[in-house]
């Protein structure tokens, strides 16, 4: 693992004409850190994650991933993104999805770890089925598998608990902790203020600005985001 911060933003902004989606942001996230990104719709959570994932161009400022500039191949290679809306191929089975994503990023394909992920998420008997035909919850679980089967040192997660049943949420929390234990950083954007109990650091956004950054209680976060 690199000794550089998992993510470092300096003066990072995003605007759409006269609308400021993210005000100038200075932020450093250490390697292996567990971070909750809290805020309501429109607070800037997804905007920040999509910029960090390389899916959205910043309007200004700088962003480094593991010491690499955002546009570098190395930055993309070390970042895994779990979106809020699963993106799946219509004609690939779960096994084929995992094989493709893993090997695309230098992994071992559908190996024992991939199989164990499927089993833990209740997908063990659906490995050769088409995820495009799954329910919303099963599609979300498939997306979790795909985010984790590839190598990474930074995992960006956007609203992962939506659509998951309670057993799925418990497994996902365990997996996120395991990712941190293995030395990778996690940044999880969520509406659920209870997630702050699961992490070492919470960042609350309101109207594109940071209103809190540190260790927080659920009550603090509810007050900060207007819950």
Structural class: alpha/beta
- Radius of gyration, taken over Cα atoms and rounded to an integer in Å: 17 Å
| Assigned CATH superfamily of the largest domain | P-loop containing nucleotide triphosphate hydrolases
Trace the largest sheet across and list its strands: 6-7-8-3-9-10
* N-to-C CA distance: 38 Å
SSE succession: EEEHEEHEHHHEHEEEH
Q: What fraction of the residues are assigned to beta strands by DSSP?
A: 25-35%
Oligomer classification: single chain
Tell me the total number of β-strands: 10
Counting DSSP H or I runs of 4 or more residues, the number of helices is 7
CATH class of the largest domain: Alpha Beta
Q: Portion of residues in helices?
A: 25-40%
Q: What's the overall average pLDDT, rounded?
A: 92
Q: Enumerate the spans where pLDDT stays under 50 for 5 or more consecutive residues.
A: none
Rough outline? globular
Q: Tell me the number of structural domains.
A: 2
CATH topology of the largest domain: Rossmann fold
- The name of the CATH architecture of the largest domain is 3-Layer(aba) Sandwich
How are the secondary structure elements laid out?
Layout: E1 7-16, E2 19-29, E3 34-38, H1 45-52, E4 60-65, E5 68-69, H2 73-77, E6 79-82, H3 94-104, H4 112-120, H5 136-148, E7 154-158, H6 166-181, E8 185-190, E9 201-206, E10 209-214, H7 218-224
Helix pairs in contact: 3-5
Describe the protein's architecture and organization:
The model has no long low-confidence stretch (mean pLDDT about 90). The chain has 2 domains: about 1-80 and about 150-225, 3-Layer(aba) Sandwich (Rossmann fold); about 85-150, no CATH class. The chain has helices at about 45-50, 75, 95-105, 110-120, 135-150, 165-180, 220-225, and strands at about 5-15, 20-30, 35-40, 60-65, 70, 80, 155-160, 185-190, 200-205, 210-215. The strands form 2 sheets. The chain has a 6-stranded mixed β-sheet, with helices on both faces. Strands 2-1-4-5 form a 4-stranded antiparallel β-sheet. With about 230 residues, the protein is an alpha/beta fold.
């Amino acid at each position: 693992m690199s000794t550089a911060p998992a993510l470092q933003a300096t003066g990072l902004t995003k605007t759409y004409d006269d609308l400021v989606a993210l005000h100038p942001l200075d932020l450093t996230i250490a390697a292996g850190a567990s971070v909750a990104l809290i805020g309501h719709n429109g607070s800037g959570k997804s905007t920040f994650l999509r910029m960090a994932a390389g899916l959205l161009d910043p309007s200004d400022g700088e962003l480094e991933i593991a010491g690499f500039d955002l546009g570098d191949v190395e930055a993309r290679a070390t970042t895994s993104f779990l979106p809020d809306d699963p993106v799946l191929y219509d004609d690939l089975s779960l096994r084929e999805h995992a094989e493709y994503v893993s090997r695309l990023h230098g992994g071992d394909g559908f190996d024992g770890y991939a199989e164990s992920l499927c089993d833990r998420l209740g997908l063990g008997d659906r490995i050769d089925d088409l995820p495009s035909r799954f329910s919303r919850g099963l599609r979300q679980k498939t997306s979790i598998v795909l985010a984790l089967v590839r190598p990474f040192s930074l995992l960006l997660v956007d609203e992962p608990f939506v659509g998951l049943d309670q057993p799925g949420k418990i497994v996902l929390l365990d997996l996120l902790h395991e990712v941190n234990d293995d030395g990778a950083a996690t940044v999880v954007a969520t509406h659920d203020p209870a997630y702050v109990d699961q992490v070492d650091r919470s960042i609350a956004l309101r109207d594109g600005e940071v209103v809190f950054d540190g260790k927080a209680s659920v009550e603090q976060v509810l007050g900060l985001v207007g819950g």
